[in-house]
Amino acid sequence: MSEMVLFADDEAGIRAVMAIVLADAGLTPLMAADGREALELFKRHRPGLVITDIRMPGLDGIGLLTAVKTIDPDVEVIMTTGHGDMKLAIESLRLGASDFLTKPIDDALLGFSLARAGEKRDLKRRLAAYTGRLEQLVEEKTRRLIRAERMAAVGQTVTEMSHAIKNMAGGLEASMYVMEKGLECNNREYLTQSWDMIRCDVARLKNLALNLLDYAKPVTLHPRPIDANEPAREALRLIGATAGSAGVALASELAPDIGQAVLDPEAVHACLLNFLQNAVEAFEGADRPDRRVVLTTRAEGDALVYAVRDFGPGIPAAVREQLFSAFFTTKGSRGTGIGLMSARKLAEEMGGTLAVDAPAGGGARFSLRLPRAPHPDRPADTATHPAES
After folding, report:
1. CA 211, CA 251: separation in Å to the nearest integer?
2. Which end of the chain is more exposed for a tag (fewer CB within 10 A), N or C?
3. With contact defined as beta carbons under 8 Å apart, do 345 and 215 qualify?
4. Where does a domain end: 216, 232, 262?
5. pTM above 0.70, yes or no
6. How confident is the model at residue 336 (pLDDT cuts 50, 70, 90)?
7. Do 34 and 56 reside in the same domain of the chain?
């Protein structure tokens, strides 16, 4: 089928002549006596080219140009005008017309204008096709990159987990060796020692499995207006017995004017419990004159800062850099290396951050910085976090 061209002019004689000229050029003319008729024909047939007179009763050429461009921005529109309408012709170019011809229309100039409009349409089609192929290529490359990154992350996690499990297996082998010696020598002390070692390693393996499940398990956050000090008080209450049995004194400096915040209290005190547990355990085997752990809260603009400081032996710089790494632990056979990693993920889900530093006076300080209210772009009750580990 030949390409359709919509021609609009309110003069019947011009329409009759142009119908012949367009047909001779191998095109299928659609003739309209005014702008409204032309617009209806355009909606019905969607031609790729429109030729319209600027001055017509009712909907004029400028109005028709605007209307068809709104429907199809890629349509080519050629304006025809008398010599006194040059300002309107120039305005039509600003509005998206591809060309204008002055009346009476010269056949050679019309042919040139039609050819140029066809070239523009072909260029747009090629550009659209190229853009589509480019988008497809980018999408495919992105998918491959994401797959590669995921595989790299899986590989790193498997490597770290394998290392952690290998260490636990090594501990079990050592326990079995001690048990075998106890059986050979009928030494009850060896048997008791090996059994304690095995029980400890099995408990560690169990904790690792449970913590990994908790880390991966989605749990919905439920932020609500609360006293911003409430999670800190609850965390102190829960850790009190553990601290007392370890001979560690708990202290708090909770800002009295901190006010209310929109937070998930369970999520916040899960992070604080992790900090407090680590702080209490920092004194194990350490001869420190000041056996205190201090939990503080303060407001900084639209942010809240919860901090836990201990006065234990401190954390070497090389260790601080690895604290939030998967399966890294300083607790020997008791640790799984999941706790702080889970706390950081939980903090990020709440829109916050974790930080650790070693104050000049000794010990360590872990801090949790949170927005006073969830970010408006974060849908309520949809963010997820790992369960308390």
Report:
1. 29
2. N
3. yes
4. 216
5. no
6. very low
7. yes
